[in-house]
Design brief:
- By secondary structure, the protein is an all-alpha fold.
- It is 52% helix and 0% strand.
- The protein has a single domain, classed as lambda repressor-like DNA-binding domains (434 Repressor (Amino-terminal Domain), Orthogonal Bundle).
- The chain contains five helices and no strands.
- Helix 1 packs across helix 2.
Amino acid sequence: MVTNPNLDTQPKLANKSGLSQQHISRLLRCEASATTDALVQIARALKCEPWELLTDDQAIREAVYKRVIGGLDDEPKRKGRAASQ
């Protein structure tokens, strides 16, 4: 969890999100599926939107990463059809 120093370990993310460290660990190892509630709790802890945790768009992931580690509020650059509309 190379992100915000305040959330750089599973126990810290667990504490901030309200989920157990064991559940965070199972999610990261893909041994459990995240519920909508868990995604919302993790997103709130990371100060992002839940959908940003699920995206496969590199530009959006980079924007979320920058926001988490730097506290930036930059709008993500969107690629594909959405950007051309």
